[in-house]
Amino acid sequence: MRKILLVIMIVSGFLFAQNEAYDALKVLEPYIGKWQIKESSYGFFEGLPEDTETINNVEYRWITDRSAILETWEARTLDGKQRINIGSILYALDPATNSIKTKHFGYDGNVYWSGNGWLEKRKNLLALHIEELTINGTHTTYTEELRILNKNSFQSQFIDINQGGKSISKQPKRKFSRTK
Fold it and tell me: Against a cut of 0.85, is the pTM above it?
């Protein structure tokens, strides 16, 4: 009887832990799926061209039994011949702070970068606070504001951009459409 009770307590503990991560991350659940936008590239990230027309494909998906979310993206020129950028963000609950932390990595053109951040829930939007460093030493901090417009579209905007100690004006709002 004690063994059965012990097994039930252990299993319940694992399930509770899985639910805590899911409960924290479910603010991102409306983004789960595939999205796309046609847009001009924004050249303020090292390695990105300015004003190149692109198709940017983004996917958010649950991983590891809904205990984390992986966002991936790839932007290519309209003819599909040239990759403009590619990257990933891992969203996970940090037990030490009980907040959602992020790990980022990818390429802008041929320039590798990585970084980290944290997610803040605000009224009607999510604010992803980001700090990144390129392989060449360019340090950038910024906030990406995400807002669900309806079940088939969301808006993204980069604000509070600081690169190498210089402030960069906020970028235009971008509207992504669901593809799946």
Answer: yes
